[in-house]
Structures are given as C-alpha cells and as structure tokens.
C-alpha cells in the first residue's frame, strides 16, 4: 500500500457502504402504524403501538426533527431522548435557545470537521486511552473532534451497552457529545454481532423507555405492545391483549382508588401486617426462648418446645406443677387494661381488614368469572340473528355486558378505597369522627345499592336468551337495558362523589383518580 493511498473510516463505511450492515431490527418501517387503533377522549388520546409498528412510530417523529433542524437521524434521536420524546418541548426550546445551543445542551455536535475526514494511511495518532500509536485507519474521530483507537472505542461501547445505555457519550474527559450510533453499530458488529443487535434494540426501545407519553403494557407474560397517551396520564386503558391497567402507575386498573391508595392496599395485602395482627391475638411469646407459641388446648398452663412452662393469660414463667383451677405459686388475676386494649385493637383491625378484603376478593373473582359471558353472549346473538324476528338488533346484550364489567370492577375496588378512606392510617385528623361516620354511612348505602343492582344484572345476563320466545326476549331486553343504565348511573355518581367530595379531604394533587368513562375502560 502506497503512502498516498487513502483509508476508509467507520464513518465513511456507514455513509457509503451501509448495505453491508444488516441487523435483525432493520425492517421496513412502512407499516400500518397509521392504522393502529386510536381512541379520542376529551382529556387524552390513546394509541396502541405493537412490536411491528414501533419502528414506524419512532421513525415518523425522527423524520420530523431531521427535517426541521437539518440533522442526521442519530442526532435527532439524541435530541428526542433528551427531551423525553416530547416534540412540543423541543420546539419551544428551539424557539427560545436557537439551533446550536439546543443541540449542544443535548450532547449533539453540528459542527463540521471536513479536514479530518480522509487522511493518509501512513498517518499515526496517539490514542489517549491506551497511549498506543496507531494508524489513522484503525482510529475513529467523533463529531466533537476527539479521536481514539477503534479497540478503545469498541470496549467503551460494549461496557456502556451492558450497562443499559443507548446514548453513549464521548470518552474524552468533560465531553458531553453523543457518539454517532452508526459508528457504534459498525465497530460493535466487527467484534460481536449480538452486542450490536442489543444496541440496535435499545435504540428502538428508547421510544418507550425514554418517553413519558409511551409505556409498555405491564401484562404478564408481556404481550409486546406499548400504549401511547397524549393528554392526562392519570387514566385507565385496555391494551389490545385485553389487559386493563392504570397508565400512571402501571398497576392493574384500580379506580376509584388513587395510585397512592392502591399502593398502600397492595402493601397491606402482601406484607405481614394482617398476619401480625392474627399472631398478636392468637399467640404468645415464650418468656425463655421468645419464640411464638400457639395454644392448642383449653388449659392456660402451656409448655414451649424449649421446655419452659408459662401462663397463657399473662405470659409469665411458671413451674411445672398445676391443677385444674390454679398454677402452683402463680397468680395473674389482676386486670391489665393496656394489654387487653392492645389485643382488642388488634382483633378489631384484623376483622376490619378481613371484611374489606373478603368482599374485594369476592367481586374480583366474579369479574373474572363473568369475563366468559362475553363469548356466551356473542354465541347467543349468532343464534338469535338466524331467527326470522322483527327486532334483530341485539347490541343491547353487548352494552349490558360492558356496563356489568365496568360496574363490577368499580364495586370491587370500592372496598379497598373504603378500607383506606375510613380507616385511621390515611385519613387520621382529616375529618372529624362525626363527619367521617356520616360520610361512611352514605358511601356504604350507595355501595349497597350498586352491589344489589350489579348482582341483578349479572343474573339476567346468565339467562339462556336463545331458549326464549320473541315476546320474552323483548321483555328481558327492557329489564336489561334499564338495569344497565341504573348500574352505570350508580357507578358514575359514586365515582363523582369520591372525586369531588371524599378525596378533597386528602391531598387532591396526590390522590387523583382516572376520569369516569361510561360503560368501558379506554381501549387502545
């Protein structure tokens, strides 16, 4: 090779020979993204992004920024990640700061280094990482002007990707510039295609991971879909896979509980607080080894596994001798008010928790069992449509099922809400005892009426409509339509009362709940 022969850098390789690099994620982005389901509401727009349409969704927004600022794709991506994929914020900053400052703050260099693009292969540089003198052919210079050998760059990229980074900065001290992702991919591909593909995947998924408006569906196992919500993020959505969830906290849909309330309820159900109350009421600690002992007989003279005898009534150590009426040398008949109050308090807390949990669980189980009604109703409608009836519109059955599901869900989660709202932990000193008792009475009265009508609607929808005459079906239709409207109205009124009255006694900014949607949760 002559001294005047030129070498091609990874940057040149990317821009002129890009077809040589093929990734598992390099697919045609001209997909049906524009045809994905979009649901428009007053406060937000819900869109589903499938695994197939993720690249198209990302590319569309990248192209907008590329066209606006006349920059490359990796630079547009770095800018959008910096602004959490909020294009409106990026536009505002552009108007306030200008193009150059906007880019520099995000780690994007838009300066030209044309004099450094092509050098003689005989040119040597010193890599300031490994301090080796290497040919310019095996070194790479980034947009910021810093140049290091390809081995050091590649090692740095591999470590960053293993740490989960998609925006990899220059290795030079105090340099904030983001490395060209095309160069990153090429250098990694030459060493390990798996790491290169992992980087490519991280770039693709950055549209979700670094985006405040898009979140993965939390279904288990993961369906692969993401949901985009524009507007109020305190909302509940239904993914195409059928999973209902709260977009704000990514937990299961839990309205009328706020996200904070639901977090407290989940902790209550999963931690040992309920068990601890049961233990306090039903066990005693051995005075010698301090292990918990449960009494399995009527005698109050108990023996621990360690051999220690003690009195069940007071917990004090005793000797082995005892009779039916007394324990030798031991008396504990004096009233201990504090101990009794602790036990009674624990018993009341346990009974209260079990009351609310039992009803929450019962309605949750009913909701799950009633999900099979949808298929049964569709099968019945197919049979009825083949009849030669005057009225062949049976959409009221589907509407009734949706009203039942919505109201059953609200009813189920109203019990965790009541447990926390009218308990002592969350609302202590927020309401007077009389005010709390009054609100609790009204809430439970409304809850009872909703519960009664939900059960009535559930029983009606279990009927075998295909075995009824046309006259009977018409009569049942009137009942079902009326009940559907009633449960929807009760659900809406309960939700409104909770939102505008009960939660106002707490911190409204903390305890926000999803807006009420008649009949169904927002479907993406």
From TrEMBL:
Source superkingdom:
Eukaryota
> Which GO annotations describe the biological process of this protein?
protein ubiquitination
Name the family: Belongs to the RBR family. Ariadne subfamily.
Q: Which cofactor does it need?
A: Zn(2+)
Classification via PROSITE patterns: TRIAD, ZF_RING_2
Q: Which UniProt keywords apply?
A: Metal-binding, Repeat, Transferase, Ubl conjugation pathway, Zinc, Zinc-finger
Q: Which pathway, per its entry?
A: Protein modification; protein ubiquitination
What EC class does the entry list? transferase
Decide whether keyword Metal-binding is in the record: yes
Q: Where is the RING-type domain?
A: 123-336, 127-174
Catalytic reaction list? [E2 ubiquitin-conjugating enzyme]-S-ubiquitinyl-L-cysteine + [acceptor protein]-L-lysine = [E2 ubiquitin-conjugating enzyme]-L-cysteine + [acceptor protein]-N(6)-ubiquitinyl-L-lysine
Keyword Transferase recorded: yes
Report the EC number(s), separated by commas if there are several: 2.3.2.31
- Provide an example Pfam family for this protein: Ariadne
The record, for SMART domains, names: IBR
Name under which the protein is recorded = RBR-type E3 ubiquitin transferase
Xref: InterPro entries: Ariadne, E3_UB_ligase_RBR, IBR_dom, TRIAD_supradom, Znf_RING, Znf_RING/FYVE/PHD
Gene Ontology MF annotations: ubiquitin protein ligase activity; zinc ion binding
* Function summary: Might act as an E3 ubiquitin-protein ligase, or as part of E3 complex, which accepts ubiquitin from specific E2 ubiquitin-conjugating enzymes and then transfers it to substrates.
Highest lineage ranks of the organism? Eukaryota, Viridiplantae, Streptophyta, Embryophyta, Tracheophyta
Source organism: Canna indica (Indian-shot)
């Amino acid at each position: 090779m002559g001294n005047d022969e030129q070498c091609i850098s990874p940057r040149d390789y990317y821009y002129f020979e890009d077809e040589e690099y093929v990734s598992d994620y390099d697919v045609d982005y001209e997909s049906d993204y524009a045809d994905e389901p979009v649901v428009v509401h007053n406060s937000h727009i819900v869109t589903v992004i499938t695994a197939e349409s993720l690249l198209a969704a990302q590319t569309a927004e990248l192209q907008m920024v590329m066209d606006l600022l006349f920059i490359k794709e990796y630079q547009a991506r770095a800018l959008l990640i910096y602004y959490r994929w909020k294009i409106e914020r990026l536009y505002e900053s552009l108007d306030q700061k200008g193009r150059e400052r906007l880019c520099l703050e995000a780690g994007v260099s838009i300066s030209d280094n044309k004099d450094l693009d092509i050098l003689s292969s005989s040119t040597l540089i010193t890599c300031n990482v490994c301090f080796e003198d290497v040919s310019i052919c095996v070194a790479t210079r980034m947009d910021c002007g810093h140049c290091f050998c390809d081995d050091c760059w590649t090692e740095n990229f591999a470590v960053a990707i293993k740490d989960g980074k998609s925006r990899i900065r220059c290795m030079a001290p105090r340099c904030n510039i983001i490395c060209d992702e095309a160069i990153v991919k090429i250098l990694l591909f030459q060493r390990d295609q798996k790491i290169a593909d992992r980087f490519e995947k991280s770039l693709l998924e950055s549209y979700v991971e670094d985006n405040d408006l898009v979140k993965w569906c939390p279904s288990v196992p993961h369906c692969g879909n993401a949901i985009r919500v524009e507007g109020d993020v305190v909302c509940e959505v239904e993914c195409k896979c059928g999973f209902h969830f709260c977009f704000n906290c990514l937990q299961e849909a839990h309205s009328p509980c706020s996200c904070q309330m639901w977090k407290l309820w989940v902790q209550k159900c999963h931690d040992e607080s309920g068990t601890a109350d049961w233990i306090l009421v039903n066990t005693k600690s051995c005075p010698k080894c301090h292990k918990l002992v449960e009494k399995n007989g009527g005698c109050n003279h108990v023996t621990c596994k360690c051999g220690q005898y003690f009195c069940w009534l007071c917990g004090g150590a005793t000797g082995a001798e005892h009779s039916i009426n007394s324990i030798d040398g031991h008396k504990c008949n004096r009233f201990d008010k504090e101990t009794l109050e602790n036990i009674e308090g624990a018993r009341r807390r346990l009974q209260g928790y079990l009351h609310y949990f039992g009803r929450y669980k019962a309605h949750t189980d009913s909701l799950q069992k009633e999900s099979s009604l949808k298929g049964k109703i569709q099968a019945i409608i197919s049979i009825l449509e083949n009849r030669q009836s005057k009225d062949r519109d049976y959409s009221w059955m589907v509407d009734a099922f949706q009203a039942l599901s919505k109201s059953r869900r609200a009813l189920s989660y109203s019990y965790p809400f009541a447990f926390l709202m009218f308990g002592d932990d969350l609302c202590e000193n927020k309401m007077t005892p009389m005010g709390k008792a009054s609100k609790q009475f009204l809430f439970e009265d409304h809850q009872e009426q909703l519960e009664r009508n939900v059960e009535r609607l559930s029983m009606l929808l279990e009927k075998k409509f295909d075995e009824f005459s046309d006259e009977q079906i018409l009569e049942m239709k009137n009942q079902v339509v009326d009940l559907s409207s009633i449960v929807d109205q009760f659900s809406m009124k309960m939700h409104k009362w909770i939102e505008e009255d009960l939660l106002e006694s707490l911190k409204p900014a903390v305890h926000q709940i999803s807006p009420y949607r008649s009949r169904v949760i927002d479907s993406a």
